[in-house]
């Protein structure tokens, strides 16, 4: 199949492709060209209620399938993704902008999550617990939570669904999914893939449209037993509040403000390589992208110089073009926000040592930027940049670096480079984050638990822990 075969301009509800009840549609644009590439339905509450009802009906039988049956279906889904990796990657780049190599990587990661959960499906073990009573036996069994609602962002339009749909399908949950409005096609493509893999109608339902109406119904509807969200902290807080009324299970993967610390004793070239990968992936638009670089005084100048030189080698352009590593930002708002971080830093004494402005290509393209002499008063010290800007702060001591790194309400990913083993342990334990990269700048994998602490969220995705998020524990007391 080609990418256009996956570009579905309809929603997937109860196994059928449907438009919005009102007939209304939303334009989808290619961020590299500004061209409208198609439309998707502008669905609201009524369609969401129908999708939830379809998921509820499907749950009756799907929840009773065996783990082996579910594992087989997931392996078919994995094959469907890998058979179409290139087409799905092209579609992803066309609607999202990232370089094709990154899109290939993302689609590969989606498949990897699906395969991981195919394997984990058969390992949802319970316990037999030693009983305090001679005439009773005690068991703990795990059962699917029920209908799951998922809301996903535009920066990973394929793999964020994989992390949610994968464990749902592995445990016997059915789901209703809303992909981000900017990048709906990679989300709707999961409907095509589910059909190819042979899932029964209603097991996976995918809706596009009004975020507040769809999200409002997902959180208010008592049939939905779990809400899983990846996106910004402010929206996560709204969903948490809304979900409270029906006491749903929640998984929240929210914003980050990742520090990246380089100690004097680090291998500088490796640190620069890690910094580049961590900062500029998806043009800086990931929640685990390094947001604040802290370089120790002894290597500060050398690190800034090397990072600036390396940033200048990155190739900006359309993601479909050979050799391009930096696609456009998602929209005009993102470009304006990136510019405002730079203007704020310059006004407060920052120094641009690489990039610093919109790219000559125009549109939503931006130069990879490095800012030296960053200070805690600058806005990016507290806020997530979500663009290709690398501010470098100076520090003197280990304690100071840890204090700066922890001085944020976020706690998703953090990174540091050192060759001192004792320091590696000390600093790892002191950093209040869900994920730590030590001498590693890109650390996400399906086998490891992804997630944050503090206002970066609750719950973990991927790994064996990611399965438990979709399972309830039932205690059984059996009298003999
Ligand atoms: P981002 O900064 O990644 O765009 P958002 O949190 O704004 O993050 O969006 C992430 C997802 O949440 C998207 O699918 C978006 O449509 C959805 N969303 C935005 N507002 C709401 C809302 N009020 N209720 C439910 N979902 C929402």
Structural commentary:
The chain has 480 residues and is α/β, with parallel strands linked by helices. The chain folds into 2 domains: 276 residues, Aldehyde Dehydrogenase, Chain A, domain 1 (3-Layer(aba) Sandwich); 181 residues, 3-Layer(aba) Sandwich (Aldehyde Dehydrogenase, Chain A, domain 2). The protein contains 15 helices and 20 strands. A 7-stranded mixed sheet has the order 14-15-16-13-12-17-18, sandwiched between helices. It has a 6-stranded mixed sheet with strand order 9-8-7-10-11-19, sandwiched between helices. A 3-stranded antiparallel sheet has the order 5-6-20, with no helix packed on it. The protein is globular and about 70 Å long. The N and C termini lie far apart (58 Å). The protein binds adenosine-5'-diphosphate. The site of adenosine-5'-diphosphate has 15 residues, from helix 8 and helix 9. Belongs to the aldehyde dehydrogenase family. This is Succinate-semialdehyde dehydrogenase/glutarate-semialdehyde dehydrogenase. One of its GO terms (molecular function) is succinate-semialdehyde dehydrogenase (NAD+) activity. InterPro entries: Ald_DH/histidinol_DH, Ald_DH_C, Ald_DH_CS_CYS, Ald_DH_CS_GLU, Ald_DH_N, Aldehyde_DH_dom, Aldehyde_DH_Superfamily, Succ_semiAld_DH.
Coarse shape: globular
Write down how many β-strands occur, each being a DSSP E stretch of 2 or more residues. 20
Low-confidence segments: none
Largest sheet, order of strands side by side? 14-15-16-13-12-17-18
What is the class of the largest domain in the CATH system? Alpha Beta
Strand count, sense and closure of the main sheet? Answer: 7 strands, mixed
From the structure provided, what is the oligomeric state, counting identical versus distinct chains?
single chain
The number of domains is: 2
Which class best fits the helix and strand makeup? alpha/beta
- The CATH homologous superfamily of the largest domain is termed Aldehyde Dehydrogenase, Chain A, domain 1
The CATH topology assignment of the largest domain is Aldehyde Dehydrogenase, Chain A, domain 1
On the 0 to 100 scale, the average pLDDT is 98
Between the first and last Cα atoms, what is the distance in angstroms? 58 Å
**How helix-rich are the residues, as a percent range?**
25-40%
The assigned CATH architecture of the largest domain is: 3-Layer(aba) Sandwich
Gyration radius, in Å: 23 Å
Bound molecules: adenosine-5'-diphosphate
Count of helical stretches: 15
């Amino acid at each position: 199949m080609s990418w256009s075969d996956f570009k579905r301009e309809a929603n997937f509800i109860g196994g059928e492709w449907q438009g919005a009840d009102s007939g209304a549609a939303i334009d989808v644009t290619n961020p590299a060209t500004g061209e409208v590439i198609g439309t998707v339905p502008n669905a609201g509450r009524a369609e969401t209620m129908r999708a939830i009802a379809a998921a509820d009906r499907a749950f009756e039988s799907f929840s009773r399938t065996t783990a082996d049956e579910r594992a087989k279906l997931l392996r078919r889904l994995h094959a469907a993704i890998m058979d179409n990796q290139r087409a799905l990657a092209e579609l992803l780049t066309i609607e999202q902008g990232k370089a094709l190599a990154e899109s290939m990587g993302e689609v590969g990661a989606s498949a990897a999550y699906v395969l991981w959960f195919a394997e984990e499906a058969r390992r949802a073990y319970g316990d037999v617990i030693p009983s305090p009573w001679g005439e009773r036996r005690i068991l703990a069994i795990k059962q699917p939570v029920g209908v799951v609602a998922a809301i996903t962002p535009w920066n990973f339009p394929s793999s964020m669904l994989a992390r949610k749909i994968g464990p749902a399908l592995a445990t016997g949950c059915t789901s209703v999914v809303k992909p981000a409005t900017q990048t709906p096609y990679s989300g709707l493509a999961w409907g095509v893939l589910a059909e190819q893999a042979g899932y029964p109608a209603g097991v996976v339902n995918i809706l596009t449209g009004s975020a507040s109406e769809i999200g409002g119904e997902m959180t208010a509807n008592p049939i939905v037993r779990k809400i899983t969200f990846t996106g910004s902290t402010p929206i996560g807080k709204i969903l948490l509040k809304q979900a409270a009324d029906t006491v749903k299970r929640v998984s929240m993967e929210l914003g980050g403000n990742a520090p990246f610390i380089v100690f004097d004793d680090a291998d500088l070239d490796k640190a620069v390589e890690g910094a580049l990968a961590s900062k500029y992936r998806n043009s800086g638009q990931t929640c685990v992208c390094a947001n604040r670089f802290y370089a120790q005084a002894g290597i500060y100048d050398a690190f800034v110089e090397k990072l600036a030189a390396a940033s200048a080698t990155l190739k900006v352009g359309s993601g479909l073009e050979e050799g391009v590593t930096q696609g456009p930002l998602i929209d005009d708002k993102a470009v304006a926000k990136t510019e405002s971080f730079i203007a704020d830093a310059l006004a407060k004494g920052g120094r641009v040592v690489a990039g610093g402005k919109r790219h000559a290509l125009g549109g939503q393209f931006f130069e990879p930027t490095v800012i030296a002499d960053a200070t805690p008063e600058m806005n990016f010290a507290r806020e997530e940049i979500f663009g290709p800007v690398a501010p470098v702060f100076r520090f003197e001591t280990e304690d100071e670096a840890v204090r700066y790194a922890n001085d944020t309400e976020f706690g998703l990913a953090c990174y540091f480079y050192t060759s001192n083993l004792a320091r590696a342990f000390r600093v790892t334990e002191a950093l209040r984050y869900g994920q730590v990269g030590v001498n590693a700048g890109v650390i996400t994998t399906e086998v490891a638990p992804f997630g944050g602490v503090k206002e970066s969220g609750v719950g973990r995705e991927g790994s064996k822990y990611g399965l438990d998020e979709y399972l309830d524990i039932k205690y059984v007391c059996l009298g003999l």
